[in-house]
Amino acid sequence: MRRKKTKYTCDICGNEYDDESEIVLHDVEKGYTICRGCFAKIARDSLMDNMMNDRMFDIFDSDPFAPLKEEANEGFHASTLITFLDHIIHDKTPENIKAHLDRYIVGQDTAKRVLSVAVYNHYKRLLFAERYKLSQHDVNGWPEDAPDELTKSNVLMIGPTGVGKTEMLKAIASYLDVPFAITDATTLTEAGYVGMDPETCVKNLWYAAGQDVDATQRGIIFIDEFDKLARKAGASRSVTADPGHEAVQQALLKIIEGGTVSFVPGAARRNPDMPGIFVDTTNILFIVGGAFEGIEKTIDARLSDEAGFGFSSKGDYDPDFTENIQKYNKVIHNVRVKDFTEYGVLPEILGRLPIICVFDGLTEDDLMRILTEPKNAPVRQYQYLLERNKTRLTFTEAALHAIAKKAIKTRTGARSLKAIFENILLETMYRVPTEQQRLKDGTMLSVTIDEENITKGATPEIVVIPDEGASDAANKARTTRRPRRPRKE
Fold this sequence. Notes:
45% of the residues lie in helices and 12% in strands. By secondary structure, the protein is α/β, with parallel strands linked by helices. The strands form five sheets. A five-stranded parallel β-sheet has the order 6-7-10-5-11, sandwiched between helices. Strand 1 (8-9) and strand 2 (16-17) form a beta hairpin.
């Protein structure tokens, strides 16, 4: 006589199961049956309310959930991560991300849109992956027409130095509240050589995430100066050992693609006797960037063959002139994967960087806006510093134009602005605190920076703002001293 197959009915959801492995608890005497899916939901809710303790199990002779506490704990972390990702997807849309970037970065509208969409889609992909994991314990399963995986799309950024690549990524990471780390590609070498292993970029992110592996695995890594790795792998390849270029690209390929990376904390290199940290890079967004200086000539040569326009008729590109920067901006947006391979980037690694984000070179007008418009504009920063000493700092329009022209000549973009301001205001910031102490009564001072202070290096004059309620004699007594003139030899 054939034995009748046992069916199990969950007392919570009412679903019937033929497979005993789907049942977590089944006690005939006490009359309860709980399936795996319902248990997971109960455990996750209990953990989120900080109620996972022995009191939950008083109705049982012993703790029946002990073998599955680890699974429940994973479910708790998954629910917390899903809540975090839901917040990004619903409240931090690409338009909102770009609006945030507009507060800190001038221009670069195309780059802002590309990065906003790329980062938003990346975290949407993470949300998809976490929900797919949870669906494996759901009796309803996963929709048949839904894919099982969304592949990662990393980003390759290109643009001259000082145009805001790093600042834009910092602003995005801060807005999304995700770990962010920058690694200089020039410090990386092949394993076995003096220098840093390629895994260092993941280690830096681990430190940025407060040494939390879970947070690390959803962060953003920016590998700067990536073009320095490509240069010697291209036409100018050396016949000697190449510990810092093509071999590093090969090592980074495996990390960027996604997999488990191991490293040891601190400055130590790999050591089999030391416990390691293991990080899965599958869900880490990798962004590599560089100036790729000279690639515009490769693009120009290709475009000249195709359409007959470019730099060739005007001679070499010279970033000293705004006209040539505009030509650069026109050509660089036509960059293609082929141009990067000719530059020296491995085709395999380009296949893992499907999104190309182009930054424009900065013109004089762009630098003028950078000086005053962003929330952290240099003019605002130095005005605030001097306001702490009751000093009003003013820049004439001609002075701002002179600063912008001087920055263009340095060929380092907005990075040079800080050095220019420090040089101009050195004497002022040196004298103002002493002048305020001499006046004693908190009188407001004024400093005006004009074109002559920029072009000829003239020392700015510190003057007292007259008190309308005081007499002329009192105001004259508060006049500041003129800067000392150097003695003639």
